[in-house]
Amino acid sequence: MSEPEPVLTKLPTHLGGLDFIFEGGLPEGRTSLVAGTAGSAKTVLSAHFLAAGIREANQSGVFVTFEESPRDITRNMASFGWDIPSWERTGRWRYVDASPSPDQPGVEIAGSFDLGALMARVENAVRQVGATRVALDSVSAVFGHLPDEMTLRHELFRLVQGLRMMGVTAVLTAERPDDHGPITRHALEEFVTDNVILLRNVPEGEKRRRTVEVLKFRGATHRKGEYPFSIIPGVGIVLIPLSASGLLGGPSSAQRITSGNTELDAMCGGGFFRDSIVLVSGATGTGKTLLSTEYVRGGARVGERCLLVAFEEGREQLLRNAGGWGVDFEQLEAQGTLRIVCEHPDASSLEDHLIHIRDLMREYRPHRLAVDGLSALERSSTTRGFREFVFGLTSFVKQQGVNGLFTSTTPTLLGGGSVTEAHISSITDSVILLRYVEVGGEMRRGIMVLKMRGSGHDRRIRDFAIDGQGMHIGAPFRNISGILSGNPRHVTDEEIVRLDELFGDGLG
Amino acid sequence: MASDRAGSEPDPDAPASRVQLTLYVSGRTTRSQRAIRNLDAICRQMADYEVRVVDVLEQPDLADRDKVLATPTLIRRLPPPMRRIIGDLSDREKVLVGLELQALDDPIPPDHPEAR
Questions:
Q1: What are the C-alpha distances in Å from A53 to residues A57, A58, A142, A432?
Q2: Distance between CA atoms of A368 and A300, rounded to whole angstroms?
Q3: Residue A116 is nearest to which of B71, B82, B85, comparing CB atoms?
Q4: Which of A146, A327, B45, B101 has the largest CB neighbor count within 10 A?
């Protein structure tokens, strides 16, 4: 703000994490305009605003509906677990029904008018329930009932002034013609309110992506930019990221935990950090699922619970795989140290997957989270959406002090260059690469710790074998270079000696 | 004057009038007064009618019941179907059309004292 404005107090909304981008809440005693296209969740937001007030802050609310009938709203919102009829009975929720009545096929206008009746009804309702919050949804509809734009603009301005005099904090929704054009039809934002919030619901890939953005809060701060959100049955609006901590630092805990493989622990400088996220990337069949299986077993041996979320393989396949390496997943489940959840990557949106994982974690309280086949999610989403998903997941996992191991499949057999890797390796704390290596006409497997935030680690690419007991990491490939790039090249002993001399023992 | 009957409840024992009107106004503004005056002039043409004036500031619950947003709003409760007309009723033609009063001229029984 260039001119000094009085700093407003904010009303914490408790609305699905939106207080994070509101930086505390909505400007108190003011009206905020919520603009969005049809289907952008304006009504859900309005109802959630009141429901959250009733549930979290013991504040009553008035819902002024211009479009849907109160009966429809009550019925539609029941799926979120909001028992509006009981709140109406206890005087905490009051409707003002401004929806078109069936007896008004067309309205005859015979002279000048105002919205005095609406204002009197809102004021009466606010007084009756002692409302702190008011939602008006959606005022654009009133332009359909009463075709006199000049009068309506003037009257809505008066209505907002009236709300301010009543001291209530209000959200007023309005229709946007499209997601990137003018803010509202009839340019309500020009005079109705100092605070503008945009809801978007734009197609992205084969799915739709919902976002919320605070355009302005006059005289108060807010976070800038679009934040994705989801609408979850039983909950309502949920903002992504789930964690308000936002920024990812390095691991704050120096405590190490086992990867489940002693040799790998040694390569990592003594195991993974307790609250770190590890990305394991490799072509199909290089041993990613094995690594997550060992990770589960390693935790179970010291009594740690692990949640295994699999996107690429079904439960039966996972059980068979683990059995082949001598790990009995069913027994671990029976003893309570493992829970397996198999998800179809395309079954729901990334936001919904994220929220589902969060809910599973809240319920099961694992020490470890293994996500097998993260890359499967990327195939059905955009880069940006996927990055946000991983960012949201890692933030939440770290905030819970849980260790995470995510696996991702690279598209080519030899070498790497996985898209997933490129997009999310900077978000994760550690990156482990698994690669096929062709040596003298034979296909071998190599493992390397590419990155280990906050710790020294083995930088060599090592040979490993898989048998009925699991993974056995052996010696470094000495005479091969170009493994990571997918073009292994045999290096003569003379050259190795020469390089060794140049770099001391730094190269292998 | 129609406004003389403002807010009075209809006598339940009296036979219902053939035309029942409710005019919602908001306070004693000039617009409210104008609407009442205009309605009064229109009502003089009618025979068996009953008008009730409701001030939304005093009786917002009645406005809730009738889902009134704008003031003034005139509601024709009887005969069915319900009709509503918004505004200060200064456009007399629209009011007459909206209330379908022309159509009502004929069916007035010839023996009615106000029949012409």
A1: 5, 6, 26, 46
A2: 10
A3: B71
A4: A327
Q: What is the pLDDT of residues A203-239, one digit of tens each?
A: 776 667 889 999 999 888 898 888 888 888 778 898 8
Which ipTM value was assigned to this complex?
0.80
pLDDT in tens, B13-50: 556 678 899 999 999 899 999 999 999 988 887 777 88
- Selected residues 24-63 of chain B with any CB under 8 Å from a CB in chain A: 24-27, 31, 34-35, 38, 56-57, 60-61, 63
How far apart are the C-alpha atoms of A294 and B43, rounded to whole Å?
90
A83 touches chain B (CB under 8 A): no
Three-state SS at A443:
strand
For the stretch A109-156, pLDDT in tens is: 899 999 999 999 999 999 999 999 999 999 988 888 888 888 999 999
For testing contact with chain A, the best of B58, B69, B84 (most A CBs within 10 A): B69
> In Å, how far are A250, A264, A268 from A455, measured between CA atoms?
10, 14, 8
In chain A, what are the domains? 10-239 (3.40.50.300), 245-477 (3.40.50.300)
Nearest Cα residue to B101 out of A110, A481, A10: A110
* Torsional class of A41: left (φ above 0), alpha (ψ -120 to 50), beta (otherwise): left
| Number of Cβ pairs < 8 A linking chain A and chain B | 106
pTM of the complete model: 0.69
Q: How far apart are CA A366 and CA A13, in angstroms?
A: 30
Of A108, A118, A123, the CB nearest to B85: A108
The order of strands in the sheet holding B73-78 is: A108-109, B83-86, B73-78, B19-25, B49-55
